[in-house]
Amino acid sequence: MYLERKSDGKIFRTMSEAVIDFKCPGPCTPECPLHPTVPGRDGTLVHMCDPGYYKTHQVTVAGLIGCRLVLADLPAEGTRRYAAVIRTSAVRDAQYAVVTDADPADDGAWEDDPEAEIFLGFFRGADALDQAAKYGRTAPKNVRLIPVPED
């Protein structure tokens, strides 16, 4: 079993790794999805980021931190394949033709797409995010990795 973050495909070997990677530095704040207090093992109230809680409520906590539990063996390091796109938040002025053989100067032949992403290609391995960002000449935070099934 392993966890996979839905937003970028990052893989975590354990729930502890995923929670530590998710946690904001500093004290818990009410905006954090793991902030609500719940009964711990000894009956005292703890935050959901407490190891005693998240180890016994893995599905709940994984969902709150944007991960999914994968009930399979962890893929071999460096073999995972991803499709990479530049996120919508990092794309501007994307248009597509609404007619065949559109004239680039004819504004009526084009439609804006405010939700556009830019496909960069397929990348493989633990450093796929860095490879894609370098290829796209952008920052890694602007890239979204989409896991591609191998079968």
Describe the protein in words.
- The chain is α+β, with helices and mostly antiparallel strands and about 150 residues long.
- The chain is built from four helices and ten strands, in the order E-E-H-E-E-H-H-E-E-E-E-E-H-E.
- The protein has helices at about 15-20, 50-55, 60-65, 130-135, and strands at about 1-5, 10, 35-40, 45, 65-70, 80-85, 95, 110, 120-125, 145.
- Strands 2-1-5 form a three-stranded antiparallel beta sheet. Strands 9-6-10 form a three-stranded antiparallel beta sheet, with helices on one face.
- Strand 1 (about 1-5) and strand 2 (about 10) form a beta hairpin.
- It starts with a strand and ends with a strand.
- About 20% of the residues are buried.
- The model has no long low-confidence stretch (mean pLDDT about 85).
Record keyword descriptors for this entry.
alpha+beta, 151 residues, 4 helices, 26% strand, 10 strands, elongated, 3-stranded antiparallel beta sheet
